[in-house]
User: Fold this.
Amino acid sequence: MQLLDAGSTDEWAATFTEDGVFEVGDSAVHGSQDIARAARKVADEFAAAGVQRRHWIGMLTVTPGDDGELTARSYALVLEIPTGGEVVVRRSTVCTDRLVSSDGQWRVKHRRVTRDGLDPA
Amino acid sequence: MQLLDAGSTDEWAATFTEDGVFEVGDSAVHGSQDIARAARKVADEFAAAGVQRRHWIGMLTVTPGDDGELTARSYALVLEIPTGGEVVVRRSTVCTDRLVSSDGQWRVKHRRVTRDGLDPA
Amino acid sequence: MQLLDAGSTDEWAATFTEDGVFEVGDSAVHGSQDIARAARKVADEFAAAGVQRRHWIGMLTVTPGDDGELTARSYALVLEIPTGGEVVVRRSTVCTDRLVSSDGQWRVKHRRVTRDGLDPA
Assistant:
């Protein structure tokens, strides 16, 4: 998420598998290329508005599956800080990742984000 | 705290010893059964009000005692997110736990929570 | 940072090397003695105002250098809680530390803090 906050959207999208899925609420983006494109668009909008985003991950639990995959569940908090302005705690979410290992690196095969107050848990 | 946030109050209370004490400010609940009951009541109130709570634990330090116990000190932040509403950072606290091990599991024998701005440190 | 939040400014400043540098935005304090002095002044002001500060460190990455030093990068969030008042998320920052080891202890040789919305990243 530090990569995303720094505007390095391609590097961030590369933490997904090529066929990775990124689900937020009831919409989903399929494939790391489309995930990169969507992230770029949002990053450009925040940059144009002069707003720094900060994603905080915490309260992590990791559960190994039978198939060599991992399920990682965390809370994620999204902060927004406009140039010259106050910190806004924009969003509290729960993030559930299914992670697979290839070439010695863990990548996100499926990420599901539920936004507190918006999405059904 | 994820259990508590999910409304699984019995499972959460089971992280205390049977004779565990939960102290907040100058009030205390004694015994995991009463802790469970009190947590259930609060959880039901938040559920009825349509408010999701999120407890964040951070800045953890763990100190072993001479007696095989551990003292765990952490900051804990309580967020509240009403359905359709904004994130509220409701409370900043310091949590001091005395943990004992039995049957290969650490449980809370004594938890003391001081609420910043309310309770003397 | 727990030491700083507790008002133990000398103990906190001792986590810097004697010639350590603490840079925030475009101002810098040189030497752990001056860092201690500056911290004491700020801590006294907050105490006089009845405001509890809480520094949260998260999203830590640690990178070893060729020279035996470590670079630690983290997000740091500063909360302020006035007596009887609400939690204020005062500041979101990125903290970059260069750490050196001596006498079996890691100390900060150089800390650079950039404040989101105020300082150029």
Observations:
- The first helix of chain B runs from residue 2 to 5.
- The longest strand of chain B covers residues 88-102.
- The mean pLDDT of chain B is 97.
